[in-house]
Structures are given as structure tokens and as C-alpha cells.
């Protein structure tokens, strides 16, 4: 498989996932705010942010919301409760009914957790466009990240994206929250390695202290450097920084354009390596440059679409 194929399986359209905002499905005021927010994706949470006695009401909120607020241009993901809980089956039935872009499975431990939901969706005749996202947030999930990602390559698999959950992982392991996440980095990189090997994407964990803008900026920068596609967010105030960090910077776009131009020069088709301003650039960098420009175009189209679309509330 070529590098570009491994990064972007041809059957799946490239998506922009810089800012992935979680909203508790029980919070109608927050749901009403979504159409005015500039996040790339929304996770409607039925799991940990909704109390057990409020799960049914939260499902009703989503039914009402999906009936009137399609959120054009934003990916819509519903996070369900574990299928082993009292709520998972009803949540999954709701997903089949509402057909969001994806269902997010919590606390995925092993490939079977993903395959089982894939089989259920197929049996329920849910269109294949509805993808599966997996929370990697347990010690077993980290240990099995590669096997879980590999399940995304099996025929009919809907697996598309991992989201790291460091609150649960810290709870299970006793690792303390610390700037720079020094003891978590090896596990985070294991997740990046797994998704890179099997053509998936990974979204970095939430940052809880939403008033601490400085540390949030630092963590976004670290997430980009590690290879995450975007960040899961808990508050609207985090969207701008996530979009800025995870979107291509002006300088990176200019550099990518220079690489594409250099390889488009007459005679360059026979070259695998060129000199751009005293730096060696290989054909593999051309693949990266084209990918970056494609992402920049998607972001531009998204902004143009958002500017043109009327902002309707739920
Ligand atoms: C953290 C919060 C409880 C804070 O809420 P609040 O006190 O209401 O904050 P503000 O007063 O500053 O809010 C200002 C306005 O913004 C709206 N708002 C707040 N959060 C959201 C949101 N997530 N989406 C949309 N809109 C939002 C408020 O309604 C205010 O609106 P208005 O009054 O009209 O001006 C709250 O932010 C929150 O609940 N956040 C999300 C929590 C959540 O989704 N948790 C689950 C995901 S975390 C996770 O997955 C962890 C993972 O599993 C792991 O293990 O790590
Ligand atoms: Mg969690």
C-alpha cells in the first residue's frame, strides 16, 4: 500500500476534524448553541456527561434536535453508552434511527467491541456511510490499539477514527494530570502508530481546565506535533485555538505550494529529489504537500459554506 493510500483510504472522503466539540445531550441550551459555533464536528454525548436517570430524556433531546438542526458542514457523532450497560441498546437503536455521520463507542477494549456494532448496524440495514469511531481510553484499549485499528481494514468495517480519553485512562492507571503529559506520551504515540498503520485518524483527548487558555494552547501544539488530526473539546472557548493549531498554517501552505511547483517544473517528473532553498525535498514530501493543500481547500470550502448558510437554531 502506498503512503497516500494508508493515510486516506479511497472509499472514505477526507474530512476536516480540527475541533470536535462534545455536548451533553441532556443540555438543551448547549445544543441550541451549536449552529452558531465554528467547530468541525460535534459529539452528542449520551455517556458519562448524562446521569443515569436522564438518559431517556437525553435521547428525546437528540430526536428533537436532529429533526430540526442538520448542522450543515459539521460532522455529527453520537457517543453511546457501553452495550454492556442498561442504556447501550436503546442508544444504538437511536443511532440507527437518526443516522448521524458516526457512532462513538466508549471504552473500546478489543476489536470485537467494534465488530459487534458493525454487524448490528449492517443487520439493521443502516447505510454504510454511517461510520464507527472508537474511544481509546482503557489500559486494554491502549494495549490493543493496533488490533482494533486493524479491524478497520476488514471487509465492511465502518471504523474511521479513534478518540483518546485521558480522563478514563488516568482513572484506570493512576497517572496524574501534568503539563506536557510526560507519562502519557508513550501511550498516545502507540495510538498514533496504530492509526497510521491502518489508515485511520486519531483525535486527541479533552483538556478539562477550559479557563486555562495558555496550557490548552500548549497541549494543542503538542497534539499537532504528535500527529493527532484534531482535539476533542468540552467548551466553545476552545474551538478557535483548536482550529488554528490543527489547521495548516500560512507558512506550511506556502511551503507545500513551493514543493508542488518544484515537482511540476519541466523535467522534474524524472526526479525523486529536488533542492528547495537549500533543503532536500523528496517525492514523499510531495504526497504530504498535496494532502496539506487538500485539507486547506476543505477548510476554505467549509468557511465559505458556513458564511453562506443561514444560522438556524434548534
Ligand atoms: C464544562 C461545562 C459543564 C461548563 O458549562 P457552563 O458552566 O455552562 O459554561 P459556560 O457558562 O462558560 O458556558 C458558556 C456558554 O456556552 C455554552 N456551552 C458550554 N459548553 C458547551 C458545549 N460543550 N457545547 C455547546 N455549548 C456549550 C453554555 O450553554 C453557555 O451558553 P449561553 O448561556 O447560551 O451563553 C460545559 O462546558 C460542558 O458540559 N461541557 C461538555 C461536557 C462533556 O461533553 N463531557 C463529555 C465529554 S468529556 C470526555 O469524553 C472525557 C473522556 O471520555 C475521557 O475519558 O477523557
Ligand atoms: Mg471517558
From TrEMBL:
Mg(2+) binds at residues 137, 168. It comes from the Bacteria. Belongs to the HpcH/HpaI aldolase family. The keyword Nucleotidyltransferase does not apply. GO terms for molecular function: (S)-citramalyl-CoA lyase activity; metal ion binding. Its cofactor is Mg(2+). The keyword Magnesium applies. It comes from Rhizobium hainanense. This is Citrate lyase subunit beta / citryl-CoA lyase. It holds the Pfam family HpcH_HpaI. GO terms for biological process: regulation of cobalamin metabolic process. Substrate binds at residues 79, 137. Signal peptide: none annotated. InterPro entries: Aldolase/citrate-lyase_domain, Citramalyl-CoA_lyase, Citrate_lyase_beta/mcl1/mcl2, Pyrv/PenolPyrv_kinase-like_dom, Pyrv_kinase-like_dom_sf. Keywords: Lyase, Magnesium, Metal-binding. Residues 18-236 form the HpcH/HpaI aldolase/citrate lyase domain.
